[in-house]
Amino acid sequence: MTILTSHMVPGALSIRTKASLLMFATVSFALLLSTATMIVIQLRTDHATSISRHEQIARIVSANMGAALMFDDKAAAAESLATVANIDDIGWARVYKDSSEPFAAFTASGDAGTMSEVRFPVLVDGAVAGELRMGVHYLGIGEIVQRNALVALLSFAGSLLLALAYARWAIWALFRPVNRLLDALRGIFASGDYSVRLKPERDPELAVIGASFNAMLGEVEARSAALSETAAQLREARDQAEQASVAKSQFLANMSHELRTPLNAIIGYTEVLHEELAEAGLERSVEDVSWIHSSARQLLELINGILDLSKIEAGRMVLDRHEVDVSNVLREVGAMLDPIAAKKRNTLHIQIDPLLKKAFTDSTKLRQCLLNLGSNACKFTENGHVFVHGHADGDELVFSVSDTGIGMTEEQLQRLFQPFMQADASTTRKFGGTGLGLTITWRFAEMLGGRITVESTPGQGSTFTLRIAADLGNEAAGETETRSPALQRSEAVSDESGAKASGARVRPLALIVEDEPSSVQLLTRLVEQAGYDAVSASDGAEGLRMARTDPPDLVLLDILMPKVNGWDVLKAFDEDERLKAIPTVVVTVDDDRRRVFEAGACEHLVKPVNRSELANILKQYSGRDCGAVLIVDDDPATARLWERGVTQMGYETRVVHDGQDALTALAATGFDFVITDLRMPQIDGFELVSAISKMPAAKQPHVIVVTGKVLDDDEAQFLKGKTAVLLSKRGLSPRKLAQSVASEARQRASNHTVEKGQAA
């Protein structure tokens, strides 16, 4: 404890020091007072003595002066006055006889100081014959002090030394029992042993203090024991809670797999049945299948909401901070809400403040918050209006979502953001929903550095206001969400892939690595419809063996599998030069997109699979393209990630890490495409694009910009016409980048064919 340390707080004095100073000051004051008293007494004594002596001298002089006055003998009178010449404190003497002029006078040589006049009568036979006047000097305080200064100083110094010695002894005697108490307290607090007790003191007051402190120690000891026991119980409860949280998360993950797997089959097969029944003209059956599909989608939405909430509670929901054009996010939200509003015949109004530009936040979570609030407003409003407004307010972004719907009471507002809660049971029955949307939105708002407030009037509508931080900070803008390990491209693999695409197989081969039979059958059906031959493996070990025996053109890989899981398969693919060039699409219930790309997959699909998206992927990898691509990015991991995706499409690739190296490579070798970032050292992307635009048309490659930077109007205008494609880094998969390259290649080939035809 700080009160027991020997170190004093700066600016403070200890009681011991204060007592010493007080005693020293008291003694000093007493000494000064006694010295002053002695001086005053001496002054008064000297003054009284001088008066008595002067009277005596005056009587003697007067007695000798009588005859001189009687006989008018001035010489005799002067001689009588001269008798005071040897008296130091008499400066002059005069005798007067019946006139204002002195009869005789005497003045001493030298300066006797300030003179005071004293008068004495001259008597002759009892009658006054004249008057004797003398100028006398009385000692003042200054003279007395000056005469006695040395003695007084030595006396004062000696007394002061004696006072200091006495003060030290008195303090030592006074604080000796206190020191014993302090030493005992220091020992107790240093050891932490509260069972120690202070020894009793003979001083009755200190004895009371010691007894009280011993009683306090006993109370502290008892409470410390109770706290230790409580802390142990809390630690045990915490460990149990953590284990329960882990168990819950594991349970939810397992349940997610178990629920999504049959849902994947249900949704997939209902889509297939819907197409086949529609072709057969069985409208009633088509309607029934549509209801099944809709119900499965609702169940999937519930599962996704529960998983999101569990991730937030477990602290596993992470932010993807990046530069965001907020006005674009609002426009996207408006496009998504339009069909929802139309179902209830509502009019949607999207209002964007012109000053609302860039922010540094997680656009996905912001978009989900606005979608949840907007869809709720549309759901609880009919034939009305829904307003979504966004503006900047200092360091915050403010979004308000208002509606003219049913509104809420104060009681309903109190439980609005609780999980699985809606306004009341009748609301759930009439409007449906799980009650998780607003809870997740509330948690996302907190993650985004903000909060949600709501105002509502029954029958008039509600207004939800979302405030978030405009800058979440800590991570540099423009960084892509994905990061892969350093990948080394093998020319031999590219050559092998090109050879395989050129005719080694009549139909491309897809390897499906999945342990769920229904998913295997559905994926097999889909890949065969896309023109692939399909083979399947029920676990990762079998999938690796089959891939090494007969490398496929495409791999569809689940993550959660027995024996060897999907992560291990991706790792093995990355370490095998023959398998690294095979496009691997992860199809799983796990939504960890970042980790999937880091592990080397070219695309990530969450079950239930979107059939059209899978069909596009299958179509993209059913053949191989050719051409030369230069990849320019200052982040080696990102550059290798793009390199792998483009190489898997059959292109020859080269990677450089700044604009200067890119210009050198372009001067030495021809390239069909340049994929470049904008933020780079030395020569950045803008300068590189400008230099490429000045190259001869015959040698000028097509430029694809991949950046995390939100462009302002001037930057966008500069790039317009100089670039073929502008892509956002955020969420960009290697497969989508390769698709953009292939699409531009086909467009370029088509334009070339048209030009040749026109020339002919």
Can you describe this structure?
The chain is an alpha/beta fold. It folds into five domains: 16-142, Beta-Lactamase, CATH 3.30.450; 205-312; 322-469, Heat Shock Protein 90, CATH 3.30.565.10; 509-622, Rossmann fold; 625-760, Response regulator (Rossmann fold, 3-Layer(aba) Sandwich). Helices cover 54% and strands 17% of the residues. The chain contains 22 helices and 21 strands. The protein has a five-stranded mixed beta sheet with strand order 6-8-9-11-10, with helices on one face. A five-stranded parallel beta sheet has the order 13-12-14-15-16. The protein has a five-stranded parallel beta sheet with strand order 18-17-19-20-21, with helices on both faces. A hairpin with a 2-residue loop joins strand 3 (116-124) and strand 4. The longest helix is centred in the N-terminal third of the chain and has 77 residues, at 204-280. The protein is elongated. The two termini are 98 Å apart. 30% of the residues are buried. Residues 1-10, 427-432 and 475-503 have low confidence and may be disordered.
